[in-house]
């Protein structure tokens, strides 16, 4: 459902060739060569997101080892800004797509649920480049966040019930107010001329 | 109800007494009041020979000036007080309107008593005393993130919009003056340059008026920052245009070179102002790094450096407002990392207080100045001005939005445009600039002033009063009141890094990339210079988290020990529910003794009274030690009791608390230094304190309060059970150490809480520490 224009595809293709050293497919080590990414605390997750079948819009699962240009573009299309004239339904769909992408990044074991361990990992990675790795604090921040999700989504729980983890629906509810469709955007994919629906 | 009306009457009586006092005190001849000094005539004598020693004397002249000033400020404050006592008035009429009316009344009274109305809105007073606190308040608490995100839009509105307004109004006014009136009338003598100057004065949206009105309508953040940011940034344009046209009118000839120089001077004024502000901001941040031993004067540095920035910019005719904003915005993250909690509160409340008083005074003075005149009412000029201002504003906003929307991701809707156009209020800055005009160069000064005042009145009264119902009518999105959640904070950071990463993969250096680079530069070099000690390394997420936790702790203590849900969403979910159930260990069997309601009430009462007593007993008269000496007799025991109570609260708490960071972590150091420079060592926990341990089975059922050994000793095995509930059972037994640090931290926290008057629950205009 993402529409991308001719110019953008051209630019992306150029970049693809540049990253893959003119080969047909991209592999993980190609991504590792990007210098600017070295400073990014969550680079591992970002790279993984490109090789995650769930992001290819083909209802696949699991990881691949290398991707072609088509998959590259599909992953990039998650960051497209919303077009000016969108109905409410389209806007909702875009939201779900983007939040699904984020969800997939957190849910590393593909079981459809972000468990406490996975969430802890997320927070730890976020804090990993900040110098002082206070593991305890990271853990507790993650715990607090999880507690909040549970409070918002489930509300009432008996003392001996167990909250499995964040499902996609809970995730949607959690980030309701977040306005993700206007925040998760790369501006350079904003060129809005002749569109070609893929 | 009778008491309330009586009180209102008293306040208004006081107010009116003071207005009379103000009126009479403005006389130039010294008052020889007969009412108060009959004693003096008894004892003193006015004979020239053998003058007796005056036991009671009256000398008003010495104190006249401070006395008058204080009277004015007192009047302003009492009026502000009075309005909120009258039940429905503040809902219908915005405060600014009421204050102007009061000013009119005062002016009327003064004139009625036959005195000359003092020129209170003297430009020097306004620009150097009244305006800076308001701007500093705005700049210091400017929400950086939305401001930066919308900076392009704001700049376009501020610069292009103001220019358009100035030229449109000025030009058309000149046209009307020439064409529409007879050649002998006074209007036709107004030159083009004068009209343009007038246009530039009247076209600037005024931050004071905008603040005053927008404060009360609570619209969403985007619109607020757009209009408000515009009002702040258009100062540079106004300054340049004003000086430019003033110069030209004086000299009389306009050359292309001068026009070109004007454009250059705009950049100099704007960027120069910002540069001056940034310099002073860095100085302030650097100074605050060393204030750990003199906490008392920390707020003073903030105020002084900011004011110096403003004045320094004014020396060079740079934009003082932009300097002030830049100074406040730049110094804030670093200063806040360095100063104590109390200083932070002091700064906040002082800024709010001064800006509030300033605003009140400005509006009252506007009213008085209106009565004072001198006026020259000219129907044509005034009405044309008002209409042109409105039209120019609407056209400007609509036209600019059309262009801006091509570049914005979140487009501005028609509703937004309407609010932006309607919110373009004029205020006292325009009046003061008009007042500054030289009478020789501008014989039509009075016409201008009258027109300016009319426009101000129109915008403040008509637009100010109707904007609130219009906002309701149009169903404009309001400010979201909900608290920031930890999940949103996590995802904000996550998203930032994600977008930066994607930009790097694309090879496109967008604004995320540069923002990230700036952040890294900031972290690596700047913070090390400007922030004292360990605090410089604390990442934003952790800072945010500690801040939230602190707020929550303060809330708990203030609620007096009730079992209250601190989280926004009432739920019964607790830590147990999310901890992964280990497969090996069986759920521990706990025999929870039933506790009667009476006993529980008793416990609560003990806790509450202890807390109240401590509050009353806290003494700190010495300027050097603002916190009560913990070694003072009896107080330490009370503190320990509080600390135990606090531990109970923590366990009743469904929200997570972080285990105490190690004693020399940045937060701990800050906490320690903040509350009490003397409290470096903590007295060991006494064993004779009544201990109450609560098990968090379910916070709702009071039956789960488990009362151990009320007057016996604290048993050691309780340390093991005590630990924080979130530890998974597999964790090694380091229970002892964290709990000690816990106590230390709690005690510090409590001391901070108890000696702090306490931030109110509705404070939250300051976001996270770093942008």
TrEMBL record, chain A:
Task: Please state the span of the N-terminal signal peptide per the UniProt entry.
Answer: none
Its membrane topology: Lipid-anchor
- Its GO biological process terms? cell differentiation
| InterPro entries referenced in this protein's UniProt entry, alphabetically | CHP3, EF-hand-dom_pair, EF_Hand_1_Ca_BS, EF_hand_dom
An annotated GO cellular component:
lamellipodium
Q: Which family does it belong to?
A: Belongs to the calcineurin regulatory subunit family. CHP subfamily.
Q: Name one GO molecular function term.
A: protein kinase inhibitor activity
Instruction: Return the protein name.
Output: Calcineurin B homologous protein 3
Species for this entry:
Astatotilapia calliptera
Q: Residue limits of the EF-hand domain?
A: 94-129
Q: Which SMART domains match?
A: EFh (SM00054)
| Keyword annotations | Calcium, Cell membrane, Cell projection, Cytoplasm, Differentiation, Lipoprotein, Membrane, Metal-binding, Myristate, Nucleus, Protein kinase inhibitor
**Which PROSITE patterns does the entry link to?**
EF_HAND_1 (PS00018), EF_HAND_2 (PS50222)
Compartments, record wording: Cell projection, Lamellipodium; Cell projection, Ruffle membrane; Cytoplasm; Membrane
From TrEMBL, chain B:
Swiss-Prot/TrEMBL GO biological process terms:
regulation of intracellular pH; sodium ion import across plasma membrane
User: In this entry, which stretches build a coiled coil?
Assistant: 597-624
The Cation/H+ exchanger transmembrane domain covers which part of the protein?
Answer: 74-472
Enumerate composition-biased segments (Basic and acidic residues).
731-749
Keyword Lipoprotein belongs to the record: yes
**Highest taxon above the source species:** Eukaryota
Q: How does it sit in the membrane?
A: Multi-pass membrane protein
Question: Mainly resides where?
Answer: membrane
Q: Where is the signal peptide?
A: 1-23
Q: Where is this region: Disordered?
A: 698-771
Offer a single GO CC term for the protein.
basolateral plasma membrane
Arranged from A to Z, the UniProt key words for this protein are:
Antiport, Calmodulin-binding, Cell membrane, Coiled coil, Glycoprotein, Ion transport, Lipoprotein, Membrane, Palmitate, Phosphoprotein, Signal, Sodium, Sodium transport, Transmembrane, Transmembrane helix, Transport, Ubl conjugation
Catalytic activity, per the record? Li(+)(out) + H(+)(in) = Li(+)(in) + H(+)(out); Na(+)(in) + H(+)(out) = Na(+)(out) + H(+)(in); Li(+)(in) + Na(+)(out) = Li(+)(out) + Na(+)(in)
PANTHER family per record:
SODIUM/HYDROGEN EXCHANGER, SODIUM_HYDROGEN EXCHANGER 1
Protein name in the entry: Sodium/hydrogen exchanger
Q: Please state the gene responsible for encoding this protein.
A: SLC9A1
């Amino acid at each position: 459902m993402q529409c991308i224009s001719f110019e953008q595809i051209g630019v992306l293709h150029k970049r693809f060739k540049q990253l893959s050293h003119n080969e047909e497919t991209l592999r993980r080590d190609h991504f590792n060569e990007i210098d600017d990414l070295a400073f990014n605390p969550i680079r591992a997750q970002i790279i993984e997101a490109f090789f995650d079948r769930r992001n290819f819009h083909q209802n696949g699962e699991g990881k691949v080892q290398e991707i072609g240009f088509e998959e590259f573009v599909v992953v990039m299309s998650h960051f497209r800004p919303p077009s000016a004239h969108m109905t409410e339904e389209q806007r909702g769909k875009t939201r779900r797509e983007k939040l699904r992408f984020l969800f997939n990044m957190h849910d590393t074991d593909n079981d459809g649920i972000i468990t406490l361990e996975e969430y802890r990992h997320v927070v730890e990675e976020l804090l990993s480049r900040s110098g002082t790795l206070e593991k305890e604090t990271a853990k507790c921040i993650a715990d607090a966040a999880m507690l909040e999700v549970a409070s918002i989504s489930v509300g009432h729980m008996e003392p001996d019930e167990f909250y499995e983890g964040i499902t996609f629906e809970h995730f949607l509810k959690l980030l309701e107010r977040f306005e993700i469709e206007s925040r998760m955007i790369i501006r350079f994919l904003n060129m809005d001329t002749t569109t070609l629906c893929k | 109800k009778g008491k309330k009306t009586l009180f209102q009457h008293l306040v208004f009586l006081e107010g009116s007494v003071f207005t009379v006092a103000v009126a009479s005190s403005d006389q130039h001849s010294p008052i020889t009041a007969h009412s108060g000094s009959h004693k003096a005539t008894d004892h003193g004598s006015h004979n020239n020979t053998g003058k007796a020693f005056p036991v009671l004397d009256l000398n008003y002249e010495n104190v006249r000036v401070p006395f008058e000033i204080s009277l004015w400020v007192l009047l302003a404050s009492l009026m502000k007080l009075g309005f909120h006592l009258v039940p429905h008035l503040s809902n219908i009429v915005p405060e600014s309107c009421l204050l102007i009316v009061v000013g009119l009344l005062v002016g009327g009274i003064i004139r009625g008593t036959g005195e000359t109305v003092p020129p209170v809105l003297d430009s020097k007073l306004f620009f150097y005393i009244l305006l800076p606190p308001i701007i500093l308040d705005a700049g210091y608490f400017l929400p950086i993130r939305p401001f930066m995100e919308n900076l392009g839009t704001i700049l376009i509105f501020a610069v292009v919009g103001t220019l358009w307004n100035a030229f449109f109004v000025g030009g058309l006014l000149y046209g009307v003056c020439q064409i529409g009136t007879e050649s002998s009338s006074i209007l036709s003598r107004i030159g083009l340059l004068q009209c343009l100057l007038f246009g530039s004065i009247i076209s600037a949206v005024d931050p004071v008026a905008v603040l005053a009105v927008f404060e009360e309508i609570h619209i969403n953040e985007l619109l607020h920052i757009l209009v408000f940011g515009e009002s702040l940034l258009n100062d540079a344009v106004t300054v340049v245009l004003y000086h430019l046209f003033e110069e030209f009118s004086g000299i009389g000839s306009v050359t292309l070179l001068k026009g070109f120089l004007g454009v250059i001077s705009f950049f100099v004024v704007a960027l120069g102002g910002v540069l001056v502000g940034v310099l002073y901001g860095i100085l302030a941040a650097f100074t605050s790094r060393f204030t750990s031993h003199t906490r008392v004067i920390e707020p003073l540095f903030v105020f002084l450096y900011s004011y110096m920035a403003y004045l320094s910019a004014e020396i060079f005719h740079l934009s003082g407002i932009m300097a002030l904003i830049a100074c406040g915005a730049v110094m804030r993250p670093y200063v806040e990392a360095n100063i104590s909690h109390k200083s932070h509160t002091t700064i906040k409340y002082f800024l709010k207080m001064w800006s509030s008083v300033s605003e009140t005074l400005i509006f009252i003075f506007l009213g008085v100045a209106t009565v004072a005149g001198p006026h020259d009412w000219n129907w044509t000029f005034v009405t044309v001005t008002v209409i042109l201002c409105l039209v120019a504003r609407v056209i400007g906003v609509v036209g600019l939005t059309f262009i801006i929307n091509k570049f914005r991701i979140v487009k501005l809707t028609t509703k937004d445009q309407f609010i932006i156009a309607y919110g373009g209020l004029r205020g006292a800055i325009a009046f003061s600039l008009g007042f500054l005009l030289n009478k020789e160069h501008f014989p039509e000064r009075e016409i201008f002033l009258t027109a300016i005042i009319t426009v101000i009145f129109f915008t403040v009264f008509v637009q100010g009063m109707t904007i609130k119902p219009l906002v309701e009518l149009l169903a404009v999105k309001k400010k979201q009141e909900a608290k920031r959640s930890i999940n949103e904070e996590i995802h904000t950071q996550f998203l930032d890094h994600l977008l930066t990463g994607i930009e790097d993969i694309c090879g496109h250096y967008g604004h995320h990339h540069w923002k990230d680079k700036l952040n890294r530069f900031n972290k690596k070099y700047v913070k090390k210079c400007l922030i004292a000690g360990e605090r410089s390394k604390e990442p934003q997420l952790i800072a945010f988290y500690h801040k939230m936790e602190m707020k929550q702790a303060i809330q708990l203590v203030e609620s007096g020990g009730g079992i209250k849900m601190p989280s926004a969403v009432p739920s019964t979910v607790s830590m147990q529910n999310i901890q992964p159930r280990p497969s090996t260990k069986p759920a521990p069997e706990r025999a929870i003794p039933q506790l009667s309601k009476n006993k529980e009430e008793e416990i609560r009462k003990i806790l509450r009274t202890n807390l109240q007593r401590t509050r009353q007993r806290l003494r700190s008269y010495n300027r050097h030690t603002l916190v009560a000496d913990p070694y003072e007799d009896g107080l330490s025991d009370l503190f320990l009791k509080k600390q135990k109570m606090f531990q109970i609260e923590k366990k009743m708490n469904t929200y997570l608390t972080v285990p105490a960071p190690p004693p020399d972590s940045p937060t701990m150091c800050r906490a320690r230094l903040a509350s009490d420079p003397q409290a470096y060592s903590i007295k060991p926990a006494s064993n004779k304190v009544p201990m109450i341990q609560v098990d968090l089975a379910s916070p709702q059922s009071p039956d789960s309060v488990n009362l151990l050994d009320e007057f016996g000793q604290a048993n050691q095995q309780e340390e093991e059970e005590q630990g924080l509930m979130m530890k998974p059972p597999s964790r090694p037994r380091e229970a002892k150490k964290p709990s000690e640090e816990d106590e230390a931290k709690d005690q510090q926290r409590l001391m901070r809480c108890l000696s702090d008057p306490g931030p109110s629950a509705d404070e939250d205009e300051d976001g996270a520490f770093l942008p």
